[in-house]
Amino acid sequence: MFDELTEKLEATFARLRGRGVLTEADIKEGLREVRRVLLEADVNFQLTRQFLERVEQKAIGVTQLRGVNPAQQLVKVVYDELTAMLGERQEGLKLSTIPPTVVMMVGLQGSGKTTTAGKLARKLKAEGRQTRLIAADVYRPAAIDQLETLGQQLDIPVYADRSTKDVVRIARDGIEQAKRARDRVVIVDTAGRLQIDAELMDELKRLKAAVQPTEILFVADGMTGQEAVRIAQGFDEALNVTGVILTKMDGDARGGAALSIYGITKKPIKYIGVGEKLDALEDFHPDRMAGRILQQGDILTLVEKA
Amino acid sequence: KDVANADVGVILRGGVKDGSLEQLEEVLLASDFGVATTLKLVDQIGGYAQRGLIRTEPEFQDALRRLVEAELREGNSDPSLKLSASKPTVILVIGVNGAGKTTFIGKLAARLRKQGKTVLLGAGDTFRAGAIDQLRVWAERVGAEFVGAKAGADSAAVAFDTIDAGIARGVDVVIIDTAGRLHTSAGLMEELKKVARVIAKRIPDAPHETLLVLDGTIGQNAVVQARTFTEAVPVTGLVVTKIDGTAKGGIVVAVHEELDVPVKFLGTGEKAGDLHAFDPAQFAEELVEA
Ligand SMILES: Nc1nc2c(ncn2[C@@H]2O[C@H](COP(=O)(O)OP(=O)(O)OP(=O)(O)O)[C@@H](O)[C@H]2O)c(=O)[nH]1
Ligand SMILES: Nc1nc2c(ncn2[C@@H]2O[C@H](COP(=O)(O)OP(=O)(O)OP(=O)(O)O)[C@@H](O)[C@H]2O)c(=O)[nH]1
Ligand SMILES: [Mg+2]
Ligand SMILES: [Mg+2]
């Protein structure tokens, strides 16, 4: 990663060297550079504006206090605020005290729900929790085959019923089976859908009411652009999701969608997907994510310097 | 005192210089045009306004619409599918994970079948769980022929077999599915090169079309994706999917400019009929409406 932002800001502030202290106008100019970086990282433009307003006040105080390297100080203020806006703490999966814990996967088409269901099942199994997958996508061609193949690869049972399109019934029956088998966790895979598709969103609401999930995980593609806000809002308003998983983070997308999604839902980003293989799931770290969005690899040294 | 400018001021709230253009900038940014394209368009429109060329709201919208359309018509922009003079035409479909490749292939096959052509689909994605079955279901659904493979088989070999079968059966069009891959995976990009190489070995001017599928909700990463894919296997056209969602897909303007290849199709749903030949005028119109 490059420390492009610091460099740009250093250039912007170069003419101030000697004076040491940044005026409000200097900071405003520096923040324009920050704005460009955030927009290029796909942070929603409205959130970008709110963010910059917040940062501006803090930056004025801080950079005037300590006049050493104003560019690095501004980056640090931005970085800290960004980390805070991404949730600060890392949170794992919540489990119900009365098993089985029900986890529901929801999101747009192709975001990574089925693969991530497999990844979570693998993780839970490795932690010693007997887990079952439920195939509640009755629309996508071969969706059930996909989940069953993942189940076979992981040696984890998959409940499916090809004789019905009633996903509520499928989920109920699957959970019944899980109870009899004394499973600890069941993960319900659902079909991808648009947040504006009233009929299919209603299906999810009915599913939620029937299975009373402990976790409803909104699975989002880490490459999502400006719409991330409205998509996340749509799912959250309909379902009151409990957490977020950001997929395909093994690429080089900057992942500004993380800020958009957390900014609008305030639901913790619990994991990130970093590959197609079933072990490619990592904990989410807000600070690392902030560094990634800012294209600022070397935050640690920066923090020490500032 | 200047009536013309006063008019623009009203429409563009707060004068040509700030409020109005800022609003335009927001519309473009919100539609995923990206910073560079946005600034370019805002500059052009600002110039028009300053010269008094646009004064009213409809004129303002019209100018934006025309500029976007002009961008999309720049350079290589013929949306028609290139068919080979001798059978079969070979189409290779590529893109990142979950963009909508397999579904697009199903829809394109349906469209070609409607035109009376025979179509053969090759299951070049042997990696993702259920991918082969997914393509088989599409083939059955739209009345296309199908060459399957065993999970884990070499996808270049599957491509070769599919073309062989296409030649033997005398089909009009062969479409080859590939596994989703991120452009950052050097190994998987090498694999893609090999698929293209093997296809060219069987029919020297094939693939006749290499279509890059982009998810319409994608943001700025689309540009570097497109660049890296086309470096591996020269892309001849773009397909933008999931345009039935709320995202506007504005980044295709930058991608079109970057690769100088036409946008050929838009995907607007999950059914066989949800595919449209790309129309720059209509695309621009819909962007401006928002
Ligand atoms: N590189 C990469 N690929 C991923 C990741 N997560 C999922 N994928 C891939 O993304 C594609 C879509 O994943 P699925 O799990 O089928 O997505 P889905 O949300 O279930 O899709 P629908 O059921 O069609 O809505 C597949 O090719 C997966 O292998 C990830 O973290 N990294
Ligand atoms: N709403 C909508 N959904 C679409 C469209 N095109 C594809 N999809 C859905 O997006 C999801 C992923 O589509 P696929 O065709 O499997 O994508 P892919 O690129 O082949 O995925 P991988 O092979 O896993 O990389 C599926 O649920 C499709 O039904 C579209 O135009 N609109
Ligand atoms: Mg799925
Ligand atoms: Mg596919």
Descriptive report:
The complex is a heterodimer of chains A (about 300) and B (about 290). By secondary structure, chain A is of the alpha/beta class. In chain A, about 50% of the residues lie in helices and about 15% in strands. Chain A has helices spanning about 5-15, 25-40, 45-65, 70-85, 115-125, 145-155, 165-180, 200-210, 230-240, 255-265, 285-295, 300-305, and strands at about 100-105, 130-135, 160, 185-190, 215-220, 245, 270-275, 280-285. Chain A has an 8-stranded mixed β-sheet, with helices on both faces. Chain B contains 11 helices and 8 strands. Chain B is elongated, with a radius of gyration of 21 Å. The chains are: A alpha/beta (about 300), B alpha/beta (about 290). At the A-B interface, helix 2 and helix 6 of A face helix 2, helix 6 and helix 9 of B. The site of one magnesium ion has 6 residues of chain B, from helix 5. One magnesium ion binds near residues 113, 114, 137 and 143 of chain A.
Question: Layout of helices and strands, plus pairs?
Answer:
The complex is a heterodimer of chains A (306) and B (290).
Chain A: H1 4-13, H2 24-40, H3 45-65, H4 70-85, E1 101-106, H5 113-126, E2 131-136, H6 143-154, E3 158-159, H7 167-180, E4 185-190, H8 198-211, E5 215-221, H9 228-239, E6 243-247, H10 257-265, E7 269-273, E8 281-283, H11 286-293, H12 299-305
Chain B: H1 3-11, H2 15-30, H3 35-50, H4 57-73, E1 89-95, H5 101-114, E2 119-122, H6 131-142, E3 145-147, H7 155-169, E4 173-176, H8 186-202, E5 209-215, H9 221-232, E6 237-241, H10 251-259, E7 263-267, E8 275-277, H11 280-289
Parallel strand pairs in B: 1-4, 1-5, 2-3, 2-4, 5-6, 6-7
Antiparallel strand pairs in B: 7-8
Helix pairs in contact in B: 2-3, 4-11, 5-6, 7-8, 9-10
The structure holds guanosine-5'-triphosphate (2 copies) and magnesium ion (2 copies).
